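new request in #modeling-help
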Amino acid sequence: MAKYVRAIIVTGLTVLWLAPVYLLVVNAIGPPNALSLSHLWIPPSSFHLFSNLSSAWHTSGFGAPNVVNTLVYSLLAPAIAVLFAALAGFAIVVLRVRFAAGWFVLIFGATIFPLQILAVPLFLGYGRTHLYDTRLGMMAIYVAVAVPFAMFVMRNFFGVIARAVYEAAVLDGASVPRIFFRIYVPMSWSALVAVFVLQFTFVWNDLFLGLSLSTATGAQGVTPALFGLTSSYGGASYPVVLAAALGVTLPTVLVFLFAQRFFAVALALGD
Amino acid sequence: MDSVLLMPAATLVVVLLYAPFVYTCFLSLFEYHGVGAMKFTGLGQYAAFFTSTSFSSIVENTLLWVVGTLILPVGLGLLAAVLTFGMWGSRFVRLVLLVPYGMSGVAIGVLWGFILEPGGALNQALHFFHLPGGATSFLEYAPLSTVLMIMAATWQGLGVNMLLFAVGLQSIPAEPLEAAKVDGAEGFTLFRLVTWPLLRPITVIVVGLAIVNGLKTFDIVWTLTQGGPGLASATLAVSMYQTTFLAQEYGQGAAIAVLLTVLASAAALIYLRRQIAPPKGA
């Protein structure tokens, strides 16, 4: 009896979770005219995904520049953040710098800030320093936002590597940069990748900072640009917007699913 | 000398996170519209927000998001983790449930807008089965709109909570479970008396994260209703954005941001207390 209840609930959840994905795919490949929208659940008889994508692509404020922006932010910012965070975590837990606990609290404490508390000063400050709507400005804030949690994970990871490893390296006369890059970094690939993947999805999917600090025809990435596309519904039809949503969101879904294993590592270390 | 290694991280965090935080707190004491002089109003900006006509609905919506996020993505996530544990085909089911978590809030909003719009997929499905609601404009009524947006957020977030609980279930040692089974416990009793207490460490983290994320809800609401109609479906984060960037009330936007930060940090303490505790092996 309990077995059947379980099978029914699990099947029900699975169907409920697949239905929106089905709707997304079926309607993103459907013809872009309004007439066919009366049968949203029925698969289309013709394939229009690429023409829908190209319609979206040719809407102003959504296209190649936004994709390039997103690629730059989501690949570079997490990489820089992971490096800075790893250096900080290394200094705190391996080198045991003076006031290590204080440094830790300072950097990790910043994880509690919601993005909303940063927005107004950044908007005003970026305006005055000509960083508003620039790639440099966006990169800087994405790195800064990623650093605290990344430092936390790296510090936990370095913390469980045996102290003897460090002591032996020092006895052998290895320099600090050498110990970091030749011993600790190679031993920590799984944690470094885990943090990178988490921050990659965060930056790729970010809406709030993109909307607050950049414009669609300037430094904005694809996610806020996709939002811009929805507010011009008059022009862009649902199949076009859905095709764009599918294209924009597929990379993070794939990366996330492939990196589940690494994700679990980050979670275990965050614990 | 080794503290040089801390400088890139510490500098960025201080300049781009702490300084804006301090400045927002400062700005929340002034009336400021982006141009012209700043006028000191003490706690006036907070008072203006508390007495604004939309204040009660913003608080209600935000509370609904927090409670809804605790019940649905967290509760169902736990259920899914327990039910699929050791089940045939659990890998496939978990993959399906996890897919939406990789999607952006904007993509979720676009897709669910398509489902919930007048004449959208849900209307058509209800109409097809001759159920009530075939012609309802779901997103125009509060608090129905918020409840439905919580459903969308559940579709997005359930998977990750399930994953966290699944990790927790795997780490439970076999002995107490075996012992309880020998003593005759099974099914829900076994779960309630043995599994649930042993899941406590992971539950604290999942619940803490859910409250914080519920409080900070922005992307899905902004994409689906932009807080409307009027401010009927706005949350704290949504009204902060509107007040700041659309109404250009920088001081009041800052005050809302400060309130949000106070609430979010209080909730974060639930799980941070556990996380900060002794560094393992260091």
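bot summary: The CA atoms of residues 77 and 162 of chain B lie 4 Å apart.
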